[in-house]
Amino acid sequence: MTNTLKPTEYAAIHDFLENQAGIRLGAGKEYLVVSRLGRLLPTFGLNGYGELVSKLTSLGNTRVQTAVVDAMTTNETFWFRDAAHFRVLIDGIIAESKPSRLRIWSAAASTGQEAYTTAICLQDGMKDGRVSRTLNYEIVGTDISPTALQEAQGASYCGVSASRGLTDDQRRRYFRDQGGCIEVLPEYRQRVSFRPFNLLKPFDILGKFDIVFCRNVLIYFSQERKRDIVSRIARSLNPGGHLFLGSTESMSGNEDLFEMRSISGGLVYRVRS
Ligand SMILES: C[S@@+](CC[C@H](N)C(=O)[O-])C[C@H]1O[C@@H](n2cnc3c(N)ncnc32)[C@H](O)[C@@H]1O
What we know:
Helix 1 runs parallel beside helix 4 (about 50-55). By secondary structure, this protein is of the alpha/beta class. It has a seven-stranded mixed beta sheet. It has a three-stranded antiparallel beta sheet with strand order 3-5-4. The protein is built from ten helices and ten strands. S-adenosylmethionine binds next to loops.
């Protein structure tokens, strides 16, 4: 087996990822390709990266192509990430608009922590009166990575993902202990669903949303793709809808489509009508 990665093979894998998923590895990430894709070679009976590249550049190799995208995604996430965003949602947006229904999209949901954190904050708000008990909400989590989505759907977390971002008290209140691992309690799972979705594809099939979390994914994309995705999110929002971006992400040239708001100690973007 030829296990060294040639510059032409790196370039082909780089282009494949950018075309399929929008992910730009940039220069000098050969070590990442080798560490993440090296293990796929024996799985698919491939004799080196040259054969892998042939599968990526010819039609009818969906399984290998999906596995490559899956392996090359960075699924890092944690509970209550950018906690200010959840305060903005509950104490800012919901407090001022008092909606009777809310459709929320976790657009790069990874292993589900963002979607479940949102459900936990909504349910807590319902319990202490900050959110109407009759609020009819739905949270849709999507991601391109089948492995991440499988963990999200299972709602069961072990190791670092069972602790990162959580206090002991939160772990006791929102999860069932499973001998070291934790499982999200049913009340926080019941209105959360997950499905595979590539942000490069049209959003129409997902319907309209009131709130979109698109956090810590635009960083992987080119400027043109960021601009395109943010502008399509604007069209997928109901009037008055809000978008949350990651702390290092921005409107990417769509400032005319959104109004930036600083409420309840955090930043959010409201679509202009
Ligand atoms: C770093 S995680 C962010 C997770 C979460 N939003 C957060 O902020 O904690 C980025 C996620 O984006 C997903 N992703 C990358 N490219 C994508 C694409 N083209 N379509 C949908 N999801 C994508 C990855 O699979 C990964 O799970």
